[in-house]
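Figure 2 data, in text form.
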Amino acid sequence: MLQIAHRQMRPFLYALVVCSLASIFSLSTASAQLGKPEGLYYKSWAIVIGVENYLLAPKIPGAIDDARAVAQAFRQLGFDEVVELYDKDASARRLQQTLSDFLPRKVGRYDRLVIYFAGHAGVTQDLAGQELGYLVPWDAQVGNVSKSVTFEQLKEFSRRSASKHTLFFLNAAVRGWEVSAAQPLSLEGRLSPEDDTERRAVQVLTAGDKGESLSQENGKSLFVQVLMKGLSSAADRNKNGWLMASEVGDYVKQQISERSHGAQHPFFVQLDGEGDMVLIEGRKADFVLGGEPQSPEERRQAAKMQYEQAALLLQTGKSSKEALERLDKALEYDPRFGDAYVLKSYVLLEVLPNLADALTAAKLAVEFAPKNPDSQYTLGLVYEKRGQYTEAERAMREALVVNPNYVDVYFSLGVLYADQIKDQRKSVEAFTRYLELGGNHARARAAVAVKP
């Protein structure tokens, strides 16, 4: 439910977990990259790490076969350099050298870099008692953080890396990173792939959460099977030919949660930047227009995605005009999407004022989202601004039928009764109930203190 507090949209609570990884070897020099590339990237790098036969830790059967399948998938995607590091090639010294020296020298600022890791991982605590994740190289022990690659080192690598887009796949159940503010993850539907892919992105997908057992199907990693299918275009949600990292993350999360029956919960997070790695480049016209969803379920999902993007744009104080365009697109996909009408009516009331259109949207919100108290509440606010005070009172009272404890509605009623309807008794009653429910606005306290 969208809440509106004192006639302002209450912030949406989006939080994403953060993390990162690193690795190893290849050819070509970043210094040769002069000017912008003709396409989206100068060069595409995939670093694939699989540790199966640990020197000091338990064996992970199938880790190398899974890693080789992932490496082949990136070759099929057209990556220029696919470097495979298995067992002793993934020693602690080699990984640290790669993070601190090799990749920073080789990968250029118009490159994309994907790093896949399959092996043991763990979580410890730092000196402040915060969880700290780490990856276990071939010659390290589980629990020996001094020889492992910690997430702090991985985050430092991601800050130093010049690559335009970096994407980490961790085939491990692990966490231990701080919370980061949400970023819009999908670039689809924007005006220019060239412009939008200039935005930096560091993105991370893990196979599961700390302590979870990683599921298998037919003796093979479920994470790898789902990831491979997603990379083969199954994750292209709106079927426009552009496969984005954010789409792969959403696809893997949904598929693994379902196929593991809720036992495994992958994370997809945005560590840095507002960009989104392009894994498959489609036609530019399709990127601009967006491939249209066909089935009713696809249209509902597309509508939900547009609605969420609109809400995020408003919450982060970005383009209100684009937010309204996305709401219109959501309603084009699903004309019965009540909550989209609620948010649209609010935008047209308070952000991009247009009272006639706000009234139309609010009435449709009441029709298609009757159980959302914000439908009637926003309708009441629109009526109040139009000078239709009787209708405003009726709508706000209807909002309280849906939610009798909606504190903000009582405050708005108190103001309406005091300033417009001129009924001080009802105003004090509304303000009193507002204060009883935990409100603390000075005007309400002053009104109740001087009862008529």
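Caption note: Confidence is low (pLDDT under 50) at residues 1-29, 179-195.
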